[in-house]
Every structure is written in C-alpha cells, then in structure tokens.
Amino acid sequence: MRTLGANRKLIKTAYLIEFSLLGLLSGLLAVMISEILVYALYVFVLHIDYQINSGLWLLVPIISTFSVAIAGYCGVRGVLNKSPVQVFREL
C-alpha cells in the first residue's frame, strides 16, 4: 500500500482493523468450540443440565481482539518506519 502512495496513518489503521477482526473471529471461534465441547460433556458424559456461559461469549472475544491487535501491530511496526525501497530490498 505504501508503494502505491498510502500514508502512514492509513496503513496503521488498515493493520489495526485487520488484526482486530482476526482477533475477534478467533475469539468467537474459540468460545463456540469450547461451548460445543462443554455441552457434549455435560449432556452425554456427566448427564447434567447445560447452561451457556455468557461471560465467555463477552470476555474472550474482547480480550482476543485487543491482544491480537497489539501483538500484530508490534510485529509490523518496523515496516511502517521504513521506506518501501528498504522493505523490498530486504525481501
């Protein structure tokens, strides 16, 4: 994007949105899989009633969104500080 003339703010925003969506989707997928496994264990193995854990549905996607966004941005931060020519030369 930088080679095509995008400024630093646009690239930073694009990276943060990309990593935030990745974190949100991974958090939702993690909660969904864990709820399915817990449901199967409760109903078929332990023979007890199942209740949805609403705290997980709220907390895990939020935490994963922020943690993946921060980790991803820290990983690509160096690319923002270099010119496109330097990035292509390192490839």
Per-chain topology:
Elements: H1 8-46, H2 54-80, H3 84-90
Helix pairs in contact: 1-2
Overview of this protein structure:
This protein has 91 residues and is mainly alpha-helical. It has a domain at 25-80. It is built from 3 helices and no strands. It has helices at residues 8-46, 54-80, 84-90.
3D shape: rod-shaped
**How many extended strands?**
0
Structural class: mainly alpha
| Percentage of β-strand residues | under 5%
Number of helices: 3
Quaternary: single chain
Level of helix content?
over 70%
How would you sum up this structure in a few lines?
With 91 residues, the chain is mainly α. It has a domain at 25-80.
List the keywords.
mainly alpha
